[in-house]
């Protein structure tokens, strides 16, 4: 399976322990040329270990032409990505990465931005805060972690020009400082856009509360870092047809669409293989997908004109794919 061709050579300029189990990496151009510009919410594809590519959000201030900064949480249940970054990537190493891509952009029409970060989800949220502060936009930021020891970039935030707009919340702290999600999202405000990133449980709590309180879907923005690919007894064998050739491929109940396509010689670019990054997003011309991803919004899923073949399946007997 292909993860797409990396296009930029960068050197690891520095490596810093930011908090318990979190390390940041500063990446600079290997040939000294300016790096491509990026916008708040952007991420890059990084070779985390041999054969493993992961997406990491850029967390330095947008507009810096000479560096990218990412931060990586070492996951106890790592499939090789975060462990590889922590154990293998060293200062001076030269690696190939993708150019920045943004699936989590700021809404320029927002009158106010409400930024909610959980744990390592602070990386894109911090970048957003930097940008909003630089342009004088109205925002507030809430940063939740299990403990102070796990809070990355706390000193940087404390020294920033927007420090007074940030509230810290600790799971192991007093009850009165914990984030009260229902109170914070009690009533949607016209022009206020909500951005959330972090562990799935945290994000689900925020988004479900916002929807229950009547926040419009157009004002809710999120980015998942990981997800569990779900399997159920209802997963059935189905067919996919390649629109360009007419080739029909059977997808057994115990294989993903990407796996079946690969075995048939049809290549689809993948990266996370968990339905969170959007790399494999494919147009559906006919048929009914069974969406299992965390990338598409519920509204986008309801249209049923695209799906993520790394994890999603079919409710109909056949899907015709724009491949």
TrEMBL record:
<dbReference type="GO" id="GO:0016491">
    <property type="term" value="F:oxidoreductase activity"/>
</dbReference>
<dbReference type="InterPro" id="IPR012675">
    <property type="entry name" value="Beta-grasp_dom_sf"/>
</dbReference>
<dbReference type="InterPro" id="IPR054582">
    <property type="entry name" value="DmmA-like_N"/>
</dbReference>
<keyword id="KW-0479">Metal-binding</keyword>
<dbReference type="GO" id="GO:0051537">
    <property type="term" value="F:2 iron, 2 sulfur cluster binding"/>
</dbReference>
<dbReference type="GO" id="GO:0046872">
    <property type="term" value="F:metal ion binding"/>
</dbReference>
<dbReference type="InterPro" id="IPR036010">
    <property type="entry name" value="2Fe-2S_ferredoxin-like_sf"/>
</dbReference>
<keyword id="KW-0288">FMN</keyword>
<dbReference type="InterPro" id="IPR017927">
    <property type="entry name" value="FAD-bd_FR_type"/>
</dbReference>
<feature type="domain" description="2Fe-2S ferredoxin-type">
    <location>
        <begin position="238"/>
        <end position="323"/>
    </location>
</feature>
<dbReference type="InterPro" id="IPR039261">
    <property type="entry name" value="FNR_nucleotide-bd"/>
</dbReference>
<dbReference type="Pfam" id="PF00111">
    <property type="entry name" value="Fer2"/>
</dbReference>
<keyword id="KW-0411">Iron-sulfur</keyword>
<keyword id="KW-0560">Oxidoreductase</keyword>
<keyword id="KW-0285">Flavoprotein</keyword>
<keyword id="KW-0408">Iron</keyword>
<dbReference type="InterPro" id="IPR006058">
    <property type="entry name" value="2Fe2S_fd_BS"/>
</dbReference>
<protein>
    <submittedName>
        <fullName>Oxidoreductase</fullName>
    </submittedName>
</protein>
<dbReference type="Pfam" id="PF22290">
    <property type="entry name" value="DmmA-like_N"/>
</dbReference>
<dbReference type="InterPro" id="IPR001041">
    <property type="entry name" value="2Fe-2S_ferredoxin-type"/>
</dbReference>
<dbReference type="InterPro" id="IPR050415">
    <property type="entry name" value="MRET"/>
</dbReference>
<dbReference type="InterPro" id="IPR017938">
    <property type="entry name" value="Riboflavin_synthase-like_b-brl"/>
</dbReference>
<feature type="domain" description="FAD-binding FR-type">
    <location>
        <begin position="5"/>
        <end position="107"/>
    </location>
</feature>
<keyword id="KW-0001">2Fe-2S</keyword>
């Amino acid at each position: 399976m292909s993860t797409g061709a990396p296009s930029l050579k960068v050197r690891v300029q520095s490596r810093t322990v930011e908090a318990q189990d979190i390390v940041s990496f500063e990446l600079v151009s290997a040939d000294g040329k300016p790096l491509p510009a990026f916008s708040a919410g952007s991420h890059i594809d990084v070779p985390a270990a041999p054969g493993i590519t992961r997406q990491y959000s850029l967390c330095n201030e947008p507009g810096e032409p000479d560096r990218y900064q990412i931060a990586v949480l070492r996951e106890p249940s790592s499939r090789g990505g975060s462990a590889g970054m922590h154990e293998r990537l060293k200062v001076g190493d030269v690696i190939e990465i993708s150019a920045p891509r943004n699936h989590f952009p700021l809404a320029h029409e927002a009158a106010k931005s409400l930024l909610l970060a959980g744990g390592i989800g602070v990386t894109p949220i911090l970048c957003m805060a930097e940008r909003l502060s630089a342009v004088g936009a109205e925002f507030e930021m809430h940063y939740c972690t299990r403990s102070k020891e796990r809070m990355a970039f706390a000193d940087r935030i404390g020294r920033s020009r927007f420090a007074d707009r940030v509230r810290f919340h600790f799971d192991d702290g007093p009850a009165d400082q914990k984030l009260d999600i229902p109170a914070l999202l009690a009533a949607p405000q016209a022009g206020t856009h909500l951005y959330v990133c972090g562990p799935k449980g945290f994000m689900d709590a925020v988004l479900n509360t916002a929807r229950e309180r009547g926040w419009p879907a157009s004002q809710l923005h999120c980015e998942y870092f990981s997800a569990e690919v779900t399997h159920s007894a209802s997963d059935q064998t189905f067919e996919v047809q390649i629109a360009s050739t007419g080739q029909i491929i059977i997808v057994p109940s115990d294989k993903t669409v990407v796996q079946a396509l690969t075995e048939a010689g049809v290549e689809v670019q993948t990266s996370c293989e968990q339905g969170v990054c959007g790399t494999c997003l494919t147009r559906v011309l006919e048929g009914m997908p069974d969406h299992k991803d965390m990338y598409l919004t519920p509204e986008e899923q309801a249209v049923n004109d695209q799906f993520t073949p790394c994890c999603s399946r079919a409710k109909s007997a056949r899907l015709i794919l724009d491949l």
